Each structure stands twice: as C-alpha cells, then as structure tokens.
C-alpha cells in the first residue's frame, strides 16, 4: 500500500513554477499566457509528454475479454457527456481518458466493468483537477442502473491508482493547443481557441489517436481550427509554423494524424445525426445516461443528476 508521503511524491505536488503553470491551463486560453511565458511552458510540456503514455495496441495485446474498438468509442462518448454535464474542464476530461487508456493498457476488462473503469477514471481526474470534484455518492448515483455500489467504486479507485502508480500529472493535447494558439494568434487567441474545441472533442473518440504524441495531435487540431477561422492562408503554412515549435515531429506524422482526426470528425458527426434513433449500445454504457422520455418513445439523452451534490 502506498503511504501518504509516497503518494504525494508520486502525484508530483511540488511547487515547481512550470508545473504550477501547467496545472492552471483550462478550457480557454488563460489571459496571462503570453508569448514569453508560452515558450517556457512549451519546453516543459515537450520534456514531459512522453511520460505515462497508453499503449495504442492494448485492444489486441492486453484485452482478453472480447473488447472491440467500438467499446472505446462508446465509453469515451459517455465520459465526455458526464464531464460536460458536470461542467468539468477540458483538461479534466482529457486526463480521465488518459487514465482510462492507461488502465486498459495494463488490465483486461469485461464489457460490464469497462463502464466502471470509465466512471472511476472521471472520479480520479475530477479529484485531481477540479475544485468541486465528483463524489463517490454522485458516481454511485450515476451508475446504480449498472449495479455499481459505493464500495465497488472505491475498490476500483484503489485498483486504478495502483495501475497508474499515482502518476496523475500527465501532459494532454489541450496543454499544447493553449500554447500553439498563443503563438499563432496572440491578439485573438480566444476566437482561435474556441475553434479548436470541437476538433479536440473529436480527437478523443478513437484509440488510434494514441499512436501520436499530444503535441502532434495538437498541431492537427490547431491546423483545422485555423482553416475554419482563416488565421492562416493554408494548412501547410500552419503545419510549418507549428512543427518549428515541436522539433521531434514531422509533417508526415501530422498529415497522418490529420487523416485519422478527419475520421474521428466523421464519426462524431454520424453520432450526432443518430442521437434520435440509436441502435442498442454494445456495452450497455448508454444505459447509465439514456432513458425513455415520457413524451418520446425513442432513446434520447435525458438529463443527468444535477448539482447540488447528491448523497446516498
């Protein structure tokens, strides 16, 4: 069992100013982030981004309980829906998905328990990053249809932290997106930053994106956002500008990342178009948030439990 002092050390609760700056990055470009401070933060991000990466091959090499790529899509959709409902920061959502994929890179899970792993990943990420974290009681309330009790959730939380070795401070794509937006559009960072968010959301859907480093995913996201907002004349000019900031990446890798991201966007668009007429979930994951509305015989996203916090 990890002692309190060991746990604090592993979580990396130092007062290093660079790490404190990383922890402040949130849904939008923070006003204090200037071109000068961005350079320092970017250097720290590049140094740390290879740490605590999931295994892109885990569905084939680790999972022994029949897991398919569609399971990962479903659980990611559900986790994003929960995170959105509770108004968690983008960083929290990305951390939760990182914890999910790292757990699945080490432990095989059944269809039913995948729901539990996703829920606990959100719980841990919210405790780590949110000022108003998800409670075990709230998590149990969300998951009662699947039969997950508070004790079951606490047990999985302990198991997940063991798998993660308490390494919760992880670099995710939104960190790089923040820096790249300031570099490309220091005077209009808010508009470009907002344009990045839909592409960031799409990038979470496929486990194939795990083949790329967070910086490479961020280059692809910002490139597409620049197309939408007209910040640069061409994709090539954006990629050229950003790859200068990330020496280890190549144009070829970014272009491949863009191809997979485009597939993720198509997948997300299809999901939205089918919201009113969904096929049964292969996981039963949607059973936690989907229900029959009284005035509608089709399955729709019914409201989740709202705060104030619920207690068992």
TrEMBL record:
SUPFAM superfamilies: Cyclin-like. The keyword rRNA-binding does not apply. InterPro entries: Cyclin, Cyclin-like_dom, Cyclin-like_sf, Cyclin_C-dom, Cyclin_N. The keyword Ribosomal protein does not apply. Residues 77-162 form the Cyclin-like domain. Keywords: Cyclin. It comes from the Eukaryota. It holds the Pfam family Cyclin_N. Belongs to the cyclin family. This is Cyclin-like domain-containing protein. The lineage of its organism: Eukaryota, Sar, Stramenopiles, Oomycota, Saprolegniomycetes.
């Amino acid at each position: 069992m990890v002692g309190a002092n060991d746990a604090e050390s592993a979580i990396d609760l130092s007062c290093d100013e660079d790490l404190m700056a990383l922890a402040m990055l949130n849904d939008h470009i923070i006003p204090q982030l200037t071109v000068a401070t961005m350079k320092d933060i970017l250097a720290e991000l590049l140094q740390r981004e290879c740490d605590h990466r999931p295994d892109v091959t885990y569905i084939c090499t680790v999972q022994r309980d029949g897991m398919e790529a569609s399971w990962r899509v479903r659980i990611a959709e559900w986790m994003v829906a929960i995170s959105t409902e509770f108004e968690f920061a983008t960083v929290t959502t990305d951390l939760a998905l990182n914890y999910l994929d790292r757990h699945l890179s080490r432990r095989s899970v059944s269809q039913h328990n995948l729901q539990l792993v996703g829920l606990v990943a959100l719980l841990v990420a919210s405790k780590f990053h949110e000022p108003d974290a998800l409670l075990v009681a709230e998590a149990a309330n969300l998951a009662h249809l699947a039969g997950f009790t508070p004790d079951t959730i606490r047990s999985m939380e302990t198991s997940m932290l063991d798998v993660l070795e308490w390494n919760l401070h992880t670099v995710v794509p939104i960190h790089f997106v923040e820096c790249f937006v300031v570099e490309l559009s220091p005077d209009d960072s808010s508009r470009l930053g907002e344009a990045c968010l839909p592409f960031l959301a799409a990038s979470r859907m496929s486990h194939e994106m795990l083949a790329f480093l967070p910086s490479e995913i961020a280059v692809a996201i910002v490139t597409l956002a620049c197309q939408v907002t007209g910040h640069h004349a061409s994709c090539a000019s954006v990629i050229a500008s950003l790859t200068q900031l990330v020496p280890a990446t190549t144009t070829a890798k970014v272009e491949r990342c863009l191809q997979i991201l485009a597939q993720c966007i198509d997948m997300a668009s299809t999901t939205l178009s089918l919201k009113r007429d969904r096929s049964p979930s292969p996981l039963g994951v949607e059973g936690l948030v989907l229900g029959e509305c009284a005035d509608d015989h089709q399955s729709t996203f019914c409201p989740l439990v709202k705060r104030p916090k619920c207690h068992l």
